[in-house]
């Protein structure tokens, strides 16, 4: 393997199929090929790397977590994409979007993990310590694939053992396991592997992305946070969803101790991450790693915050995916000047709701900030000298785009906004986005423009740029699966839910994330600027604060899609209109009018993926999810 796991790997195990029932774990018929795969250390290591190839790519444009909710919207020509179809309510059991249950889904990855675990002890010339570590990696991946399926489908079929091809499939268990059984299985498997994994990698330059103790512990924290959340903890909506024995698939009694377990796991993961050298990426780190001269603290903070995600393998990224990020950069970057051709698509567009989600400059929601002109947020305002680092001088944009927290300007771009980097690394001479009808960042062609008037600057690495106005030179980065800030906010959430009222422990880790963003503490900010100053002192109030903090800090990384589901808030959010600016208009007054782009509908059935109808036809014992 050369330079990380993203180098092309011979997918030895992907050629094996599982007879009649695709999701089952069956020994492949090609035994000779398997024997060769485990004939020596070199081939066995190739098979190990194959196990990683089943990881769903978080930065893939077809990942519904990126564009399957209310966070991003696309032009009408692009609305047949996998995630966008889900966001529009067009999911179906006949032809499920983003199907990871059937052919070439995660059960194939699980099957390959089982093959590896059953054969690795017989490999000659492999040191015992290597076998131990490799087996631990395979166990964590196997656990993660089970968890990923459970997060999508709810109760799944635990696939733990190899089944001989000679075994009658009628004797193979195809019944879905309960939620309690699935999560217990996943946690036990991770615990079994944790003790055998290294704290850090021996060779970062060649092994980044491989499972370590901090990664395994972080996965466990995510698993237990999900298990403790309302979708899986006492969800009475699924009281009638039962297995063949009449036992509910979902636990019906709320178990508060699940939050205690989640808090313990999150803290253990944080401690392991700290021991391994992980920490929040800060503005000083950007200067140290980039070397770009910046004199303004505002520009420096924006650059540091933007780089917390796109600075390749920075020490905040606990686990990143090494697949290509060129596609998501191509989709997310606006036209920064009048290019000769169109080397960017500019259509990965944050909704107006997301622009309104970010805090005011005082670190509280704009609708709560007593100093913010919330009622007039859609009206125009002209940039003054004090706005020079955020809005082009003397130009007008919506009040909504003024006086916001720094993450707003680090993560989002908008008409008349300042864009530092990407070929304009002099903060005195940045790019300015001109996006009104007929201007260079407006509609290039019907499928290539922002339908909302916003762009996710956070997804575009600062060194990425357009060459000679004709081609985009992207900067490959490790798209985060878990960042340290993610764990900090998990811990704050779990602690808040496990206590009768928030205390200093609850505030500590959310305040670390806020401090990095240049904001005051939760208690101080709400006390000084909110029309609800006691909100952080109550459990319900603090829950809302933590949820909004997560949606801001983790924006555009795929977290919101899963968080809204586990919180059982997706139906609430996805039943509201999707809105943006009237971006085809040339005059500012017309451009800055709010336009409804779509009215989605979301029902209870949409919390879980449908099992493909083809699988339930082949296996009548396989119970379909409610509503499908």
From TrEMBL:
InterPro entries: SusD-like_N (IPR033985), SusD_RagB_dom (IPR012944), TPR-like_helical_dom_sf (IPR011990). This is RagB/SusD family nutrient uptake outer membrane protein. Belongs to the SusD family. Keywords: Cell outer membrane, Membrane, Signal. The keyword Transcription regulation does not apply. SUPFAM superfamilies: TPR-like (SSF48452). It holds the Pfam family SusD-like_3. Its main location: membrane. The lineage of its organism: Bacteria, Pseudomonadati, Bacteroidota, Flavobacteriia, Flavobacteriales. The keyword Lipoprotein does not apply. It is found in: Cell outer membrane. Residues 93-223 form the SusD-like N-terminal domain. Residues 341-628 form the RagB/SusD domain.
């Amino acid at each position: 393997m050369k330079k990380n796991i993203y180098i092309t790997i011979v997918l030895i195990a992907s050629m094996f199929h599982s007879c009649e029932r695709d999701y089952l774990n069956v020994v492949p018929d090609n035994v000779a090929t398997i024997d060769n795969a485990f004939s020596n250390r070199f081939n066995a290591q190739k098979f190990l790397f194959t196990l990683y190839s089943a990881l769903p790519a978080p930065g893939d444009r077809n990942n519904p977590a990126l564009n399957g909710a209310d966070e991003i919207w696309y032009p009408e020509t692009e609305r047949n994409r996998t995630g966008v179809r889900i966001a529009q309510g067009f999911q179906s059991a006949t032809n499920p979007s983003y199907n990871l249950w059937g052919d070439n889904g995660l059960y194939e990855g699980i099957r390959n993990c089982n093959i590896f675990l059953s054969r690795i002890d017989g490999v000659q010339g492999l040191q015992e310590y290597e076998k131990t570590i490799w087996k631990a990696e395979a166990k964590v991946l196997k656990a993660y694939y089970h968890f990923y399926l459970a997060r999508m489908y709810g109760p799944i079929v635990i696939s733990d053992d190899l089944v001989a091809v000679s075994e009658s499939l009628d004797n193979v268990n195809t019944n879905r396991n309960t939620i309690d059984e699935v999560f217990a299985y996943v946690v036990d498997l991770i615990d079994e592997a944790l003790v055998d994994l290294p704290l850090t990698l021996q060779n970062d330059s060649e092994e980044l992305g491989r499972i370590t103790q901090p990664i395994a512990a972080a996965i466990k924290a995510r698993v237990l946070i999900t298990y403790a959340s309302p979708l899986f903890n006492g969800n009475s909506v699924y009281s009638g969803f039962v297995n063949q024995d009449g036992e509910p698939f979902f636990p019906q009694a709320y178990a508060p101790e699940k939050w205690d377990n989640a808090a313990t796991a999150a803290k253990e993961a944080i401690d392991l991450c700290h021991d391994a050298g992980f920490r929040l990426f800060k503005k000083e780190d950007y200067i140290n790693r980039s070397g770009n001269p910046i004199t303004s603290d505002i520009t420096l903070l924006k650059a540091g915050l933007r780089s917390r995600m796109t600075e390749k393998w920075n020490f905040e990224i606990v686990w990143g995916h090494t697949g290509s990020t060129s596609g998501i950069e191509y989709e997310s970057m606006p036209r920064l000047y009048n290019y000769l051709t169109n080397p960017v698509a500019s259509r990965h567009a944050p909704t107006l709701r997301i622009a309104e989600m970010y805090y005011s400059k005082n670190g509280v929601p704009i609708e709560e900030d007593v100093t913010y002109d919330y009622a007039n947020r859609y009206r125009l305002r002209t940039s003054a000298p004090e706005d020079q680092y955020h809005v082009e001088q003397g130009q007008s944009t919506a009040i909504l785009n003024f006086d916001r927290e720094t993450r707003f300007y680090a993560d989002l771009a908008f008409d008349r906004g300042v864009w530092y980097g990407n070929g304009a690394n002099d903060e005195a001479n940045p790019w300015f986005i001109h996006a009104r009808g007929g201007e260079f960042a407006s509609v290039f062609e019907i499928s290539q423009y922002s339908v909302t008037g916003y762009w996710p600057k956070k997804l575009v690495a600062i060194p990425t740029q357009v060459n000679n106005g004709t081609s985009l030179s992207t900067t490959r980065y490790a798209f985060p699966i878990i960042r340290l800030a993610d764990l900090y906010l998990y811990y704050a959430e779990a602690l808040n839910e496990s206590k009768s009222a928030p205390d200093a422990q609850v505030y500590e880790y959310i305040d670390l994330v806020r401090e990095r963003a240049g904001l005051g503490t939760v208690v101080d900010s709400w006390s000084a600027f909110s029309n609800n100053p006691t909100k952080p002192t109550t459990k319900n109030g603090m829950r809302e604060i933590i949820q909004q903090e997560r949606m801001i800090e983790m924006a555009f990384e795929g977290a919101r899609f899963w968080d809204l589901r586990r919180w059982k808030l997706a139906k609430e959010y996805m039943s509201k209109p999707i809105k943006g600016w009237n971006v085809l208009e040339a005059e500012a007054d017309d451009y800055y009018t709010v336009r409804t782009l779509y009215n989605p509908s979301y029902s209870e059935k949409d919390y879980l993926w449908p099992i493909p109808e083809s699988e339930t036809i082949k296996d009548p014992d396989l119970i379909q999810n409610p509503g499908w």
